[in-house]
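Late entry, written up from scratch paper. The run itself happened at the end of the previous shift, but nothing got recorded in the book at the time, so transcribing now.
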Amino acid sequence: MSFSNKTVLGTIGGLIIAFLAITLFIKILPVILVVGLTIWGVFKITKWFESKSNKKMEFSKKDEVTSEFSSEDKGFGYDKDNVVDVDYTEVKK
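Output as recorded:
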């Protein structure tokens, strides 16, 4: 008889603990969702503002870069520059 009482009490205790855990989770879930959505929204808004400021910087940089190059420099030419030839050895693992 004592064996069946331990099984029943263990089952009832497990059910009570599970019920309390589920109840606690249900009460905390809305708070977790609100905090999570708030953090997500803040990150999205800050990223949007950063992208707007980067676009403004890109336009100003584009003007500076195009003014630095002359019309003579088209592409890469190795005729005028010194090319350094490097010897290397492979390392086996």
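The chain is about 70% helix and 0% strand.
(Scratch paper discarded after transcription.)
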